[in-house]
Amino acid sequence: MVWQLGRKLQQQEQTSVKATQALRKAFDEMNGTGDGVRAPYNAVSEWLGTQKLEDLKQKLLEAETMFRRTGITFAVYGKEEAAERLIPFDIIPRIISGPEWRRLTAGIEQRVRALNAFMYDIYHRQEIIKAGKIPEELVVGNSAFVPEMMGVEPPLGIYSHIIGIDIVRTSENDFFVLEDNTRTPSGVSYMLENRETMMHMFPDLFARNRVAPVDDYPENLLKTLASVAPRGLEGEPTIALLTPGQYNSAYFEHSFLADQMGVELVEGHDLVVLDGSLQMKTTQGLRRIDVLYRRIDDDFLDPLVFRSDSVLGVPGLFDLYRAGRVTIVNAPGGGIADDKAIYSYIPEIIKFYTGRAPILQNVPTYNCRKPDDFKYVLEHLPELVVKEVHGSGGYGMLVGPTASKAEIEAFRAKLVANATNYIAQPTLALSTCPTLVDTGVAPRHLDLRPFVLFGDEVRLSAGGLTRVALQAGSLVVNSSQGGGTKDTWVLQD
Amino acid sequence: MLGRTANDLYWLARYVERAENMARLTEVGYRIVLLPRDGDGTHEEWRSTLSSAGCAQGYFSKFETLNTRDVINYLLFDFSNPSSVKSCLAAARRNGRAQRTSLTRDMWESLNAAWIEFSNINPANITAGELPRVLDWVRSRSALYRGALLNTILRNDTFFFSQLGTFLERADNTARILDVKYYVLLPQIEMVGGGVDAVQWGAILRSVSAHRSYRWVYKENYKPWRIAEYLILNQAMPRSLRSCYDEINIALSDLANLYGERSVCHETAAGTRNLLSSGNIDDIFQSGLHEFIEDFIIRNNRLGNDVAEVYHFNG
């Protein structure tokens, strides 16, 4: 009954929200294109039909209280402590069937291996450039390219051990990779806490569905980190997680992961490079660190090599890394693989290194540095999503179909002034999923970020983090832009 | 354990203890101020409360006169006072958040909830009738945190540094109360006698929550030298200097066992404890109560510095 309320609401929105063609033709994860509930959602749909709206809202409040008490908050920059925010949580799960997940898994694994092969090549012989598959200036002239990494041999030849791949769906069978995050992807703690919360609040739902567990992630992360310890190390490696500190917006996740793995959570000033190793200052003096899972950006890692004003990193760290005395995870310079200008070449990259066609498709992308593409973009701004090449977090982008004329013209000026800084993509009709909103249950657009670990083997958590745009018709799911999250289920056959 | 972690845990414990002590001092001061009395010395009691709290200098740099509302605000809600309950709870939570991985869920949630609830209090809404409730709440929060610590934490360095912080802060607090009020405990004052002294003696005991236990231990009316003995030397009284130093020595020797090394701080602490366990109150009065207390405060501070040095609190 509640769901019917949602359906009615959806119809209202279709007429009231302007310029959201996307919503009108969007594929719904629960209801497909309107011809009945899709099989993976049978049990949840039935359950939802028996729930009262007030009860669901009450449950949502309980969940929020739990999150706040646990401290699953993120700091809003420039605000005092009381201003920590919650990432909104939605209690209706997003469900992926076993066969769907197997296909995604194959595509993700292929992609992760290809991306790492690409990084190794770029920082060694650059065969892909020599083969003429990627323009040289796009790589070596790219601000994400780190020349200091040339010739470095990371353990197992891996650069990005921890990758988040953003995937969107537009129909029953169409999945697209929106972007790869090969530097320091965040959000995995929300995947884990969302599941905890759901199991705590709705144990009966888990009794009725065979949901693949996700709580093996911290252990898999630890195994992955240990597998890339410096060569020749004897005994168990000492692992630490490097955070910029508690005022960083992802601090909760840093402390959560360190806690779950049982490793020290360190800040730059806890560390020193001495006697050819990275050492942390403990109550008993200095102790060596072998693997550093860093959650600070390349620029801040080592003031002697990168930004000299950084106090977040450790002077001398990079030399140590080059000498193979410590492993930095993810390796510096990995940003070259998730650069938005490189993105359009990923299908080419996959073919080049794996010899096979990509299993997961890219979103068609117009590269504004190419004259033909740029011309097309300028002529079709109202239909396109335009992004900064180095942007993230949903900042500095134009969503053509929902932008006003004035916004489009203002953006056009920026675009003309600095074309190479932008790419554009058609506005995809992102799939929707029923979501609890003020007035009831209504469809909201979402994406999916599976978290992949790559060390001695590829380890992929079942599902990932589903981000949902909470405003009707909105396609922007980033938490910094008011997006929320859902528990993500992979059903076991 | 990181030196920074040890530092944060130690200070976290001190801040929680300090918040509780601030609440208790405020409560005692308020009781005395409420008493009907001749003359206009009423507000003067706040002067010694502020001194005991170590907040007199800060207060008078901000306010010219003693005023109950201002004093209470300053002790409880003022962020510019680093020892106010608000500052203590914020600092405790900040340290706890920085060391979230060392805290159990129960410990963290009690700290976090305390901060969230306290920040929702509007000082302007705190009427005279409301005040005792707020002060009780602060003490109950501190008790909850200590309970969570004692019940849930592993007995390793996390626990030992927390214990050190708690009991160094507690010893400091008891010593400062004695330092400010020592003169009402001196024999010549007892000759003068009178109601005011009984009130002051009661106040000293109350500010360490000992006004009832005193009677169980001594089975007689308040005697100033007994009060001094109780707060300084009594082994059973949980806020006495002696019992604080028993706990401090236990925590330090646990650390020495864990790390396999004794250091200068162990000598400092053992020396102070010997002074307390072998001392007797007549000798202390003989050689000067005030001098004894001043010497103790210096020793206690030195121990704090030694601990920070030995365990690399600052890297």
Topology of this structure?
The complex is a heterodimer of chains A (493) and B (315).
Chain A: H1 2-16, H2 21-24, H3 42-49, H4 53-70, E1 73-74, E2 85-86, E3 89-96, H5 98-122, H6 127-130, H7 136-140, E4 162-169, E5 175-181, H8 188-201, H9 203-208, H10 217-227, E6 239-242, H11 251-261, E7 264-266, E8 271-274, E9 277-282, E10 285-289, E11 291-294, H12 298-301, H13 317-322, E12 327-329, H14 340-343, H15 346-354, E13 361-362, E14 366-367, H16 371-379, E15 384-388, E16 398-399, H17 405-417, E17 422-426, E18 432-437, E19 440-449, E20 451-454, E21 458-460, E22 465-469, E23 483-490
Parallel strand pairs in A: 3-23, 5-13, 6-7, 6-11, 11-12
Antiparallel strand pairs in A: 1-2, 4-5, 4-20, 8-9, 9-10, 14-17, 15-16, 15-17, 18-19, 19-22, 20-21, 22-23
Helix pairs in contact in A: 5-15
Chain B: H1 3-34, H2 44-52, H3 56-60, H4 68-76, H5 85-98, H6 105-119, H7 131-152, H8 157-185, H9 187-192, H10 195-206, H11 213-218, H12 224-232, H13 241-259, H14 264-278, H15 281-287, H16 289-310
Polypeptide structure, described:
The complex is a heterodimer of chains A (493) and B (315). By secondary structure, chain A is an alpha+beta fold. Chain A has a domain at 364-426: 2-Layer Sandwich (Dna Ligase, domain 1), CATH 3.30.1490.270. Chain A is 34% helix and 22% strand. In chain A, helix 5 crosses helix 15 (346-354). The two termini of chain A are 29 Å apart. Chain B folds into two domains: 1-153, no CATH class; 156-315, no CATH class. Chain B has 16 helices and no strands. In chain B, helix 2 (44-52) runs antiparallel to helix 8, helix 8 (157-185) runs antiparallel to helix 10 (195-206) and helix 14 runs antiparallel to helix 16 (289-310).
Key traits:
A: alpha+beta, Dna Ligase, domain 1, 5-stranded mixed sheet, 17 helices, 34% helix, globular, B: mainly alpha, 2 domains, 16 helices, 0% strand
- Report the uncertain regions of chain B: none
Broad shape of chain A: globular
Question: How many structural domains of chain B?
Answer: 2
> Largest interface by residue count?
A-B, 26 and 27 residues
- Can you count the beta strands of chain A? 23
**Percent range for β-strand residues of chain A:** 15-25%
Kindly provide the name of the CATH class of the domain at 364-426 in chain A: Alpha Beta
Beta-strand portion of chain B reads under 5%
The helix/strand class of chain B is mainly alpha
Task: Give the helix level of chain A as a range of percent.
Answer: 25-40%
Radius of gyration of chain A: 23 Å
Ranges of chain A with pLDDT <50 over ≥5 residues?
A: 1-23
Kindly, what is the distance between the CA atoms of the first and last residues of chain B, rounded to a whole number of angstroms? 11 Å
Mean pLDDT across every amino acid position of chain A:
89
H and E string of chain B: HHHHHHHHHHHHHHHH
In terms of quaternary structure, the protein is heterodimer
| Major sheet size, sense and barrel closure of chain B | none
